[in-house]
Design goal:
The chain has helices at about 55-60, 70-80, 140-155, 175-195, 210-220, 250-265, 290-310, 350-365, and strands spanning about 5, 10-15, 25-30, 45-50, 85, 160, 200, 230-235, 275-280, 315, 330, 345, 350, 370-375, 380-385, 390-395, 400-405, 405, 410, 420, 430, 435-440, 445. It folds into two domains: about 20-370, Glycosidases (TIM Barrel, Alpha-Beta Barrel), CATH 3.20.20; about 375-445. Strand 1 (about 5) and strand 2 (about 10-15) form a beta hairpin. The strands form five sheets. It has an eight-stranded antiparallel sheet, with helices on one face. It is of the alpha/beta class.
Length: about 450
């Protein structure tokens, strides 16, 4: 299986692992606050994470469950026609392995990632259950009881169950590969017996460097054997360390995804679908990635490339959070949000990147990739077809940038079959035969005509 190839003329081709029209479920989302109005952009699914619905927040003591917050999320998603991925992780305080106990955990005392978060369910949630040994043996009854309870309660509402979030980060997981593989196996058996239509998603590591290596070790320990879907996170910011004004590059998705695909191939898992269960341009408080044009460019290129690489689902993080992939905000003035560029929307403001998200959804859903995304020098293009003889080509120049509302461009000569192009604001412009257009960081979609 080839994930990318470089031709002798310097052209890079990104090879997809699937064919057919791109479904609406490719575009999925995180919604942080239940009070946030449902997104006005179309989404096919939601992932429940950072939504006060984790194991530690629901199962507060043995046999005691408070389903209130989960139920309102499930009901909301169902009413909007979006399916649900539920994240199973974050061990409740009463079930945790002690931080000093190396028989069921690392034996190292650290501060877990959600210790100080209000209503997060208590400290220590990155430690494994205390009845599951470090080698994966033991009854694992706490986990079994929890999975049984949540699947029984959520049957018919949850489509996907993900085992753990970002276990390659120390403050997210202080257990072993064998423990997570056992948890995956037990979850598969329980989910299959209660709700056979629901699917198991592997733990989802993050980052370019530890992520693929972590997944390789997890699969070597027996992980992913019981899973239906392979998952990882698609962040590509701060690859060489977070530095002000060194911005994330969407084209780094090519290398990130190729690394994970190579691991899957090595372990015989290459036929399973891949979900990017979390990702965006990431945190912007250090690298200061706040330019609204560049954010719009990133979100479109991010989805174009993932679609070309055959990613089945991409869960953007997030719709309504400040500083991490924000597409909608309650106010228009947050620098980490819309930075004054939003338009009134549903009681808040839709950022320019939210408008761009809508456009790339329109471009891709129902279209079939006709040619892999490829780069000729710094100019990238991705081809698509639809019924009725429709053809389209998304193009951009990755060497160009934007600043203070001005975007640099280069000259591009479209093929004569294209008569118009669409931009990220939703506008359409005619293209005369033999003429040139200006392209830059923000992709445009050349078309042979309107969508049939």
């Amino acid at each position: 299986v080839s994930f990318h190839s470089v031709a002798g003329n310097g052209t890079l081709a990104v090879m997809a692992n699937s064919s057919g029209a791109i479904p609406s479920t490719f575009f999925s989302m995180h919604i942080n606050d239940f009070r946030t109005p449902w997104p006005t952009v179309p989404i096919g699914g939601v992932r429940l994470w950072d939504t006060q619905t984790t194991w530690g927040q629901i199962n507060t003591s043995p046999g005691i469950y408070d389903w209130t917050k989960l139920d309102r999320r499930l009901t909301q998603a169902q009413s909007r026609g979006a399916d649900v991925m539920y994240e199973l992780g974050r061990t409740p305080v009463w079930a945790q392995c002690s931080s000093t106990d190396s028989t069921c955990g690392s034996g190292v005392t650290i501060t877990c990632g959600h210790n100080g978060v209000t209503a997060a369910g208590g400290p220590g949630q990155c430690y494994p259950p205390n009845d599951l040994k470090i080698d994966g043996s033991g009854p694992n009854q706490h986990w079994k009881d929890w999975v049984t309870a949540v699947v029984t309660h959520s049957r018919g509402f949850v489509r996907y169950y993900e085992i753990w979030n970002e276990p390659d980060i120390a403050h997210s997981w202080q257990g072993s590969f064998a423990q997570l593989a056992r948890m995956e196996q037990d979850a598969k058996a329980i989910v299959g017996s209660i709700d056979p239509s629901a699917l198991i998603v592997t733990p989802a590591p993050v980052d370019m460097h530890p992520g693929p290596t972590w997944m390789d070790r997890y699969m070597a320990a027996g992980g992913a054997q019981a899973a239906d879907v392979i998952a990882f996170h698609g962040y590509v910011e701060c690859i060489g360390g977070c530095v002000p004004h060194v911005y994330p590059t969407a084209e780094d998705e090519v290398l990130l995804i190729s690394k994970f695909k190579a691991v899957m191939l090595a372990h015989g898992q290459q036929t399973k679908p891949i979900f990017i269960t979390e990702g965006s341009w990431g945190r912007t408080d250090i690298n200061l990635f706040t330019d609204q044009d560049l954010r719009s460019a990133f979100i479109v290129r991010y989805h174009l490339l993932q679609g070309s690489l055959g990613i089945a689902r991409s869960y953007w993080y997030l719709w309504d959070g400040i500083g991490v992939g924000t597409l909608w905000d309650t106010v228009n003035t947050n620098l980490q949000g819309c930075a004054g560029g939003g338009i009134p929307n549903n009681g808040g403001y839709l950022c320019p990147s939210g408008i761009a998200y809508q456009q790339v959804y329109n471009w891709l859903v129902g279209a079939s990739p006709s040619a892999p995304c490829s780069a000729n020098g710094t100019v990238w293009s991705c081809g698509y077809t639809r019924g009725g003889g429709y053809h389209a080509l998304a193009v951009w120049d990755a060497s160009k940038t934007c600043s203070n509302g001005v975007c640099a461009t280069s000259i591009y000569s479209p093929d004569s079959q294209f008569v118009q192009y669409r931009d990220l604001a939703g506008g359409t412009k005619s293209v005369a035969s033999g003429s040139t257009i200006q392209i830059g960081a923000k992709p445009v979609l050349l078309e042979t005509g309107n969508v049939p």
